[in-house]
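Morning, I've got a small favour to ask if you have a moment. The fold is given in discrete form, as structure tokens running alongside the sequence. I'd be grateful if you could look everything over and explain what you see. No rush at all, and the record is pasted right below.
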Amino acid sequence: MPQRHSKNNNDLAYFTYDEKKKLGYGTQKERLGKDSIKPFDACSLCLKPFIDPLCCQKGHIFCKECILECLLSQKKDIQR
């Protein structure tokens, strides 16, 4: 019985399905640890619990002091 050419071909510029399968490409599953997920009540800039929270139109929540400081620094960078 002849062998399938795609399983033996290794000179392509991309991986074949069988090569990906042998390497475990895209099938490895890992649990994210507690350190890699931001708590719900944390500011996106300082990663601390909210102090006087503000919400943007897209739904991102920030501390008032953090977002004002960030906006002022961006404004100074633009003026330079």
User: Anything to note?
Assistant: The mean pLDDT is 80. Residues 5 and 16 are 11 Å apart (CA to CA). Helices lie at 5-8, 17-23, 64-79. Residues 64-79 form the longest helix (16 residues).
